[in-house]
Amino acid sequence: MLAIVGPNGAGKSSLLRCLYRYHRPVAGAVRLDGADIWSLSARDCARRVATVLQESASDFGLSVAEIVELGLTPHANGRGASDGDEVEEALALMGLDRLAARDPSTLSGGERQRVMIARALVQRPDLLILDEPTNHLDIRHQLEVLDLLSRLPTTVVVSLHDLALASAHADRVLVLADGRLTALGTPLDVLTPDAIRRTFAVGTAIDRHPVTGQPRFSFHLE
Length: 222
Description:
Strand order of the largest sheet: 4-5-6-1-7-8
Radius of gyration: 18 Å
Number of helices: 9
């Protein structure tokens, strides 16, 4: 999993829009398995790239299960026997199985976010892109969602504000500042006190969590 971090306005969402073919890059190209994504058909791109944006499901007139089932649309050649199982599995992974018949407009923001992640999982993409997927989630669901994403057998790209979550769950971290890539590497190599000071203009003390052993960040103004 690749985590994209940076201050507000650094360009995280803009970069993601290029990755999921909402904006065409001014220069360069976005390639998926060597192919420029703009050379793919819309349907082929939808089969291979799934996105979860900050806007969440609310008022489609569909149930939670029906919204998750929409993730099967790019693969539609008639429903297969396993489609229902895939929807049920995604609902269970996101802790939504008891909410399958509910109207999404009656759910909390965090529950709606998990509905959209479940829909993306059903899509079975080669590349899964999530823009701040932990927004609106409580602490436990933040940890559970990122743990699940980090174990998926697919390429996952997420934008995050929380450096501790990025460090604990991402294999690699990409740092943006003023629309430019300033660092790319493992969390230990990239999220150092000096780098955080340059990028976020705060001081940082880093120690180890006594239970998980993961880096723990404490920030202060300088």
